[in-house]
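Step 1: inspect the first sequence and its tokens.
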Amino acid sequence: MSRIELPVAGQAPPERADAARNRRKILDATARLVAEEGAGAVTMNAVAHAAGMGVGTVYRRFGDVSRLLYALLDHSEQAFQQAFMSGPPPLGPDAPPADRLRAFLHALVDRVVEQHRIMQVAEAASPGARYHNGAYLTMHAHVAMLLRRLRPDTDAGALAHLLLAPFVPSLFDHLMGDRGLTPEQLKSSVDALLSLHVPVTG
């Protein structure tokens, strides 16, 4: 089975050493704020203070809180991407596309559950930013690639967006908080949703 190379979240042109150090200091400071006070405490001023640098530097590097939080998510996203791009099956290559798609969406449930507080603040700060974020673009390209193999009669790009649309923190808050669903129940619902759109194996 041929493999399609996808960009890895967080990959960027090489940075100057001082720029790379500033980026790392800002992301480390952001991670500390999230761990100690929650994602809602993240502001550009708070991050600048925690990183020991001017707020202008933080704005120049990341632009706004949403981009900063998505950059923090991108850093942790890399291990997830390596798993679905080159890890063992069924999530990685060498498994049937239907099995890979199911495994990917199950893994994505776990990721949203683990990271949903940061995702929630990032989404609220800039609702449309998700669709231009490197991590989302990579996930979308991966899902679309699998769908082209499974459903060549469809617009795989549009269908990939629709399959990824439920994986937003506000919906997970409703389903888990208000409805009381567990991650395993969410995965069962994902399987039911997949059965409506793509061929299943097993």
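Step 2: inspect the second sequence and its tokens, then contrast the two.
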Amino acid sequence: MNDEYIVEMKHITKQFPGVIANDDISIGIKKGEIFAFLGENGAGKSTLMSMLFGMYEPDGGEIFIRGRQTVLSSSKAAAALNIGMVHQHFKLVPTYTIAENIILGMEPRRKALGLFPYIDIKTASKRILELSGAYGLEVDPNLRIEQVSVSTQQRVEILKMLYRDAEILIFDEPTAVLTPQEIEFLLKIMGELRNKGKTIILITHKLEEIKQIADRCAILRRGKLVKVLQVEDASTQEMANLMVGRELTFTREKTPPRFRDTILEVEGLTVRNENQFEVVKDVSFSIRGGEIFAIAGVSGNGQVEIADTVAGLVKPYRGHIRLKGRDITGENIRSRIEAGISYIPEDRQKYGIVLDFILADNLGIKTYYRPPFSDRTVLRQEGFRRFACDLIERYDIRSGQGAKTITRSMSGGNQQKAIVAREISLDSELMIFVQPTRGLDIGAIENIRKQILDERDKGKAVLLISLELDEVMNLADTIGVIFNGKLLNIAPSESLSTNEVGEYMMGVKG
């Protein structure tokens, strides 16, 4: 045992049906450092750290915490050793307040008049406020989780760890659902936690975040440890190549567009939210075949509502939507799919897949009523299986039991690959991509961006909504910039600079 390590894992092996998630991994993490795990979706990063947090037990190997060999049989056992974890998909109760979520499982109990037990939420809230002030994680303990933003929910998860006096903090893909501004804030918080003596373990596939904040980085590929690097001595290109096991190219030559007839027309679209506030205001645009039309904007400015309305998830308050000249404004979701709309939603787990279905069922869920999936009223499982096996191979969807894999057991990135594969397989005239590369590793990002360009080159109309400005600038033929629910400017992408788009996004221009 090496005394300089606060965490040491020796020869860790973990298997699930059909897959070796971790294969003889040995790693040491020093006290007070930010140690990153980098790897493709499904490389075994989250599984390894889930064992450190007591969610799984290793099939082989040993774990040492502060020099002592330890059996972590539960997350409670990990918490007793001052280990905390923020999961990629938050573990919060939406109807509980922030304070109730933070103290859940270790509620401070008192007795009124020495007889009547009650939970002392007032004292707990006071401590939460002290912690939030000390670490720059300001929250209102009295707000319910369902009332606050995603970034605030993440602060709550961090405060849950700090409330339990965690010294070893594990962050699993913490920036997957954050805006660029929120990411900057979170990385700053991690730096402050390190400066106060905490040990940070960061699971990610984002190279720029590792370069910005991490001290060392372990690279995993298909369950094996490839290399441990000093981050300051490694280039992003070297890390990317090690992660995917091949030479990666960060740019792709985009051929000049060949525009065809208009596929989508949106005219005077106004959308109201549940509080009857206008989140989309009199928006009009059109998309031609062979064109990628990207809507750029800061999160929360109405771009997702536009996509949801075109796809049929939201009813417009005013305006018209036409697909190849046909007014589909009042039509339901299935008729829009039949008319030729594919949709990759922002929230993959809420709108993209059914987590407890097997992968084959999720891949065939939009076409289950057609051959080869059904014969009139009888479902044909062999049709689902063959279709799924074809997409799994073509899109490199990592799934331990192939078509029979329960979708919930797959990594978030592979769930996203499955949705993209299904929607492209529909061969729709209009492809709507909302945050298509969110939560994906760099190899998968490269592949999906190529697929978007391929669909455009086949003559499809593509509506792209992304918070990644470089993604918008690299892929789009036409850019519409949205601010406060209004499209301020629509122009060919080559006529706009990144700075100009940024100024429109912030409302400085237009």
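Step 3: confirm your contrast with the notes below.
The radius of gyration is 24 Å. The longest helix spans residues 180-195.
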